[in-house]
């Protein structure tokens, strides 16, 4: 999956030359939210292995923007913050971003494990009950799909596009030329 995501990055870079990066990311996550439930069509002994590979591959491609755009968008936020507060707090903002990213991963995995436990899923068993497998599908597909959908809606509302970022950069540069300190 990571190889597919990495190989897809040049494609996403080209798309982002024509569409604001936050919108590219939002559309990709929206697509991913709708692709994920298709995985439920394939059971453990699916005779449709290559269809499963195709669906998983599309999902991986749709994760490419997540590898490419978060830090770039954080740079836009840092520039906006610098303009608004007349000082660079890039280090603080990136530290906060890194902290939040780690905390959200921990919370996400924790919620997933609680869901698995609530449904009685046991990874050590050769065969789990249908109820336990349902819990696994909720934890691995259902909850993430809903969160990808919600995240895409948030990304669509992000207001700093290339034009606005250009204005922000020009204002920062104008301020810097008037006050080099």
Topology record:
Blueprint: H1 2-16, H2 21-35, H3 49-62, H4 64-68, H5 70-85, H6 90-118, H7 130-156, H8 162-178
Helix pairs in contact: 1-3, 2-3, 2-7, 5-6, 5-8, 6-7
Helix content: over 70%
**Percentage of residues in DSSP E strands:** under 5%
What structural class do you assign from the helix and strand content?
A: mainly alpha
Low-confidence runs? none
Alpha carbon gyration radius: 21 Å
Q: Tell me about the biggest sheet? A: none
- Give the overall shape, derived from the CA principal axes: elongated
Question: What is the succession of H and E elements?
Answer: HHHHHHHH
Q: Kindly report how far apart the N and C termini lie.
A: 47 Å
Mean pLDDT across residues: 93
The helix count comes to 8
Provide the number of structural domains. Answer: 1
Number of strands: 0
């Amino acid at each position: 999956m990571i190889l597919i995501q990495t190989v897809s990055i040049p494609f996403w870079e080209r798309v982002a030359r024509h569409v604001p990066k936050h919108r590219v990311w939002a559309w990709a996550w929206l697509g991913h939210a709708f692709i994920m439930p298709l995985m439920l069509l394939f059971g453990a002994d699916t005779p449709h292995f290559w269809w499963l590979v195709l669906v998983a591959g599309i999902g991986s491609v749709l994760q490419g923007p997540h590898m490419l755009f978060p830090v770039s968008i954080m740079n836009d936020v840092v520039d906006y913050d610098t303009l608004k507060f007349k000082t660079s707090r890039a280090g603080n903002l990136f530290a906060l971003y890194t902290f939040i990213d780690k905390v959200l991963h921990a919370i996400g995995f924790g919620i997933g494990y609680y869901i698995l436990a609530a449904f009685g899923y046991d990874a050590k068993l050769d065969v789990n009950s249908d109820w336990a497998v349902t819990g696994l599908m909720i934890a691995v597909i259902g909850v993430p799909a809903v969160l990808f959908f919600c995240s895409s809606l948030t990304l669509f509302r992000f207001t700093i596009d290339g034009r606005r970022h250009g204005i922000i950069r020009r204002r920062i540069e104008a301020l810097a030329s008037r006050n080099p300190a």
